[in-house]
Structures are given as C-alpha cells and as structure tokens.
Specification:
Helices cover 0% and strands 53% of the residues. By secondary structure, it is mostly beta strands. The chain contains no helices and 11 strands. A hairpin with a 3-residue loop joins β9 and β10. The strands form 2 sheets. Strands 2, 4, 5, 6, 9, 10 and 11 form a 7-stranded mixed β-sheet that branches.
C-alpha cells in the first residue's frame, strides 16, 4: 500500500513537499516514482528514486526545481517541489515501480 500526502494550493513560486508512505512490501526491493496527471492530459513521469542504490531521475520539466529523497527507516519517499509553476498543477501519484499505486494528491498552483 502507498499513501500520498502533502498536496495543496500554493501560489506560483511557492513550495510544497509531497510524501509517499509505503507498507506491506519490502521497501528496498522497489524503485519509487512520482507521476502526475493534469486534466485532459496523459499521466507523465516526474521523478524516481532507486531505494537500493539511491540513484535518481527527473523529467526535464522539473530538473533543478524538484528533489526526490527516501527515508528507508520510515518507508517514505519525499518530493520537494520548489519554484512551482501553474503548469505543475496536477494530481500527483506515487508508484512502487511495476506494482503498487497510491490514491493521488492534488497540487494546484495559482498564477
């Protein structure tokens, strides 16, 4: 099971930190990814972290603004989002790659 939290409404230029808490599976066996889906658009990958090695990936659209991190002691992955833009508005989902999805958390960035 994955549970996201931390979404909300923020003005452009602001920050939010999303959390993805996992349970019921071996955390180190999975990479954890963040996806987002805006209204009328396809779901897109935003960032990913490998819990066994720590390597990370960022979509070009968020490089330099978003930072992904993992706390294995808490089975939680974080997505720190800075310098938010209206185009970041979407429902954000976390995914234990290839297996589990969270329910999503809404992020709305006002201009």
């Amino acid at each position: 099971q994955l549970v996201e939290s931390g979404g909300g409404l923020v003005q452009a230029g602001g920050s939010l930190r999303l959390s993805c808490a996992g349970s019921g599976f071996r955390w180190a066996d999975f990479a954890i990814a963040w996806f987002r889906q805006a209204p009328g658009k396809e779901r897109e990958g935003v960032s990913c972290i490998n819990n066994s090695g720590g390597s990370t990936y960022y979509a070009d659209s968020v490089k330099g603004r978003f930072t992904i991190s993992s706390d294995s002691g808490k089975n939680t992955v974080y997505l720190q989002m800075n310098a938010l833009k209206p185009e970041d508005t979407a429902v954000y989902y976390c995914n234990a790659v290839g297996r589990y999805w969270g329910q999503g958390t809404q992020v709305t960035v006002s201009s």
